Amino acid sequence: MDKNITLQLSESLEQQLSQKAAQLNISLESFIIDVLEQYNSEDKAENDPITPLIGTLKMKKNDLAENHDFYLSQALQQELKGVE
């Protein structure tokens, strides 16, 4: 069953989206639905800007994933000591 949703867009966003829809020769509604369907179906990891770096960085510490909170707290403590 389809649902109706009302969106309030800024005038500039509506103009930008309408232009893109016109380039594709489809309605604004169809364009927005297509964009939402595409966003919903994409693998979120593909959009992560860090993903291409996985396995390419050389570091002294190799347990960042497991102990990232510890390393962040250490860095924050060092930064706060430097401020005093």
Q: What's the gist of this structure?
A:
The protein is mainly α and 84 residues long.
In words, what does this structure look like?
With 84 residues, the chain is mainly α. It has one domain (11-83). Helix content is 56%, strand content 0%. Helix 1 (11-23) packs across helix 2 (28-41). It is elongated, with a radius of gyration of 22 Å. The mean pLDDT is 84.
Mean pLDDT: 84
Spatial shape = elongated
How big a fraction of the residues is strand?
under 5%
Q: Are there runs of 5+ residues with pLDDT below 50, and where?
A: none
Oligomerization state: single chain
Largest pleated sheet: none
N- and C-termini, Cα separation: 61 Å
Helix content: 55-70%
Rg, alpha carbons: 22 Å
Structural class: mainly alpha
Order of helices and strands: HHH
The total of helices stands at 3
- How many E strands? 0
Q: What are the salient characteristics of this protein?
A:
84 residues; mainly alpha; 56% helix
Topology:
Layout: H1 11-23, H2 28-41, H3 64-83
Helix pairs in contact: 1-2
